[in-house]
Amino acid sequence: MTAQRRIDPLTWLILAFIAAPLLIVVPMSFSTAPSLEFPPTAWGFNYYRAFFSDSRWLQPLLNSFIIALGAAALTMLLVIPASFAMVRHRFHGRALTNLMLLLPLMAPHIVIALGYYSYFGSLHLTQTYAGVILAHTCLSVPMVFLTLSAALKGFDRNLERAGANLGASPLRVFRHVTFPVLRPAFVVAALFAFVQSFDETVVALFISGRDAATLPRKIFDAMRTEADPVVAVVSTLLLAAVIAGVIGSRLWQRRRKRVNALAFAMQ
User: Which residue of 1, 12, 60, 164 is most buried, as measured by CB atoms within 10 A?
Assistant: First the structure.
């Protein structure tokens, strides 16, 4: 109990340190000052109206969603079979393949961005959605691979063997046994890929250009040139989206538990 009392104040201190920037950014988003100012001298929704009526902000936001969804889908298509191969099979060059899958974690993003800029430039993929999606996919592969590999290593393969013994084909076993059990891991991995792409700045600065500019790039440009207060609005909206996602996830889990408990009670 004494140890718990000593830990709690430290925990609250860490949480306060993490939340302190939010206590500054959120009030600034409601300011009417011509630049970033804290504390605000006057309050209003001017910069929210500016954000939702300015295509210079809305287009990068849409670009970020398109690129993040594309990168998440492509990452899952590549990493799911790679994870199954790496976890369940032994083959020549397995160690080298594992190293290549994790290589983006070892190299600084600025180095990777320079390589993409040079290579994609020769392929005419800079300033295109395809180029940014491919680059973000490469950056997302290591985290998704680690997530799915950990889930596969803890998966009980006896479930698959039982399905096969009952006459199910490998595809039916995957659809009705493997996928339902591993679905939470797939969802988490896809979210990792989406967030990694949506939040990535360095590579986007090099290859996204004007036509495929992402929201992080727009934020960087706005802070570098004029310290646009709309940046505080973007930060507040992203924070609200994260909070809504967490609350929605918790409510969905509670509802699912209640439905399962009701179904169990009716049996």
Answer: 60
How many degrees, rounded to 5, is the angle at CA 264 between CA 258 and CA 267? 145
Identity of the amino acid at 180: P
pTM over 0.90: no
The class level of CATH for 56-234 reads mainly alpha
Among 251, 225, 233, smallest CA distance to 47 is for 233
Instruction: Categorize the per-residue pLDDT at 266 as very low, low, confident or very high, splitting at 50, 70 and 90.
Output: low
How far is residue 83 CA from its own chain's centroid? 19
Dihedral angle over CA of 222, 225, 227, 229, nearest 10 = -40
- DSSP for 55-91 reads HHHHHHHHHHHHHHHHHHHHHHHHHHHHHHHHHH---
| Measured distance CA(59)–CA(53) in Å, rounded | 11
Cα–Cα dist 10/20, whole Å: 15
d(CA 90, CA 197): 31
* DSSP β-bridge partners for residue 31: 43
Mean pLDDT, range 89-98, rounded to an integer: 85
